[in-house]
Design goal:
Layout (H helix, E strand, L loop, with lengths): L1 H22 L2 H16 L4 E4 L4 E5 L5 E6 L10 E6 L1 H5 L12 E2 L2 E6 L14 H11 L4 E4 L4 E5 L5 E5 L9 E5 L2 H5 L11 E8 L5 E11 L5
Helix pairs in contact: 2-4
Length: 226
């Protein structure tokens, strides 16, 4: 009887602990609220991508877009990716033949990640924000908070991200397309000459929580002044 009581106590503690962790996921929960605010501010740029099977949020200048899946069990390649026009990089010296395999698709450059194979919960593909909620629910490790810019973001690995402001009212970088510049530099790009992109050092933290600076290509937009 005593052994059963201990097991029941441990089980109860585990449930309470899990529930508490879920309730305390401030980053995950707040990222949903702020991403919904971004979607509401960019309604004309948010469309359904029927070929891919997901949603697309296009940059106001039409030079880039962030795409995320409706149903991760059906997506055969990247579940979330950035697609950017290759021409500005070519004009800055890019030899597309020197980029990693699969990175060039037609006249676009694509960087992304395969998140997993989870099916959406009931009605979860009804809207773009519902599909984003599935990323938070099933692939929480890919949702990041960038302290220096006060941004949330979807990490597409290898230094590539799509970020958005926690609060658009206090931030002049409401959305930012973020690329790792190294593959481009290795393929001949003069990083200072890519039209429409900012080459900058960005403050962030390494896996041990130590502050570091990393090089990035950034395409930021202030949605309220677009």
């Amino acid at each position: 009887m005593k052994k059963k009581l201990l097991l029941s106590t441990f089980s109860l503690l585990a449930i309470v602990s899990l529930t508490a962790c879920n309730k305390l996921d401030v980053i995950g929960d707040q990222s949903i609220k702020s991403f919904e605010a971004v979607l509401n501010s960019t309604k004309e740029e948010v469309t359904e991508d029927t070929t891919f099977g997901g949603w697309s949020l296009a940059a106001p200048d039409g030079e880039a877009r962030f795409v995320w899946s409706k149903d991760f069990s059906k997506t055969t390649s990247n579940d979330a990716f950035l697609e950017v026009k290759a021409q500005p990089f070519i004009d800055a010296g890019l030899d597309i033949s020197k980029l990693p395999a699969g990175m060039v698709v037609g006249d676009k450059i694509v960087v992304g990640t395969e998140l997993g194979n989870d099916k959406p919960s009931s009605n979860s593909d009804a809207t773009p924000i519902d599909s984003y909620k599935q990323i938070v629910k099933n692939y929480r490790d890919n949702i990041k908070y960038h302290t220096a810019l006060d941004h949330y973001g979807v990490d597409m690995t290898n230094g590539n991200m799509f970020e958005w402001a926690k609060d658009m009212a206090t931030n002049d970088k409401d959305i930012v397309f973020v690329l790792n510049p190294q593959p481009f530099i290795d393929a001949g790009v003069d990083a200072s000459k890519v039209d429409g992109w900012v080459f900058a050092k960005v403050d962030t933290m390494d896996e041990n929580g130590k502050k570091i600076q990393v090089d990035k290509f950034l395409k930021p937009f202030d949605l309220e002044s677009k």
